[in-house]
Design goal:
Shape: globular
Number of helices: 7
Largest sheet: 8 strands, mixed
Distance between the termini: 37 Å
CATH topology: Rossmann fold
Strand order of the largest sheet: 3-4-2-5-6-7-8-10
Helix content: 25-40%
Order of helices and strands: HHHEEHEEEHEEEHEHE
Length: 195
């Protein structure tokens, strides 16, 4: 399947969010891939993170106004290189985007967005607890992540990447998620983690 067709298939949307992601990701060169990871999938997810950053409102913080917009990645090295390549040189809310590969002990609360890869799902509860109610948009890709207290979770529906949103968790973090994002998502609540 061609590169653009793969991106279209992964996204599964023909709306305001899909087109910018496709254009954003489709013009990029292929990233080096590990054997087990499809770099196109992480390019698409990086594009979504970029769009989430534009349609989520963080509490005003004067100190952050001139600093980099930090997207933290917790993984085993499968997502960070691709996301870093895709997002390098981009700006969000007049702030340069900086993708940071986080290690144990790093302050997760210094990020605006925290992406937790599938490979780190066993640590997800610990990582979410570390973030607490800080204004950090937590994004995962493991089954039930949003129901377990993450803000947004990528889910695979056939060949498409979709997402779930936990509005309650986002509100507790002081984040306002645009209705444009919410209207395209499956809304979940913490209670769904018990099912």
């Amino acid at each position: 399947m061609g590169y653009i067709k793969r991106i279209r298939a992964l996204m599964g949307y023909g709306t305001w969010l899909a087109l910018p992601v496709m254009i954003f990701c489709g013009s990029l060169p292929n990233a080096a891939a590990s054997e087990a990871v499809d770099p196109i999938e992480y390019k698409v997810k990086a594009g979504y993170l970029f769009n989430f950053a534009k349609f989520v409102q963080w509490p005003h913080n004067e100190a952050n106004a001139t600093s980099a917009f930090r997207i933290g990645v917790v993984d085993r090295g499968e997502a960070f290189p691709v996301m870093n390549e895709v997002l390098a040189g981009k700006t969000v809310q007049n702030r340069a985007v900086k993708v940071v590969h986080l290690k144990p002990g790093d302050d997760l609360k210094q990020c605006e967005i925290l992406f937790i890869a599938q490979s780190q799902d066993k640590r997800a509860a610990e990582l979410l607890k570390s973030v607490g109610t800080a204004p950090v948009l937590t994004v995962g890709e493991a089954k039930g992540f949003a129901g377990r207290g993450g803000c947004i979770n990528f889910v695979q529906v056939g060949a498409n990447v979709r997402f779930e949103v936990n509005l309650q968790t986002a509100r507790q973090a002081g984040l306002k998620i645009s209705s444009k994002i919410a209207s395209m998502a499956t809304i979940v609540s913490p209670e769904e983690a018990q099912k």
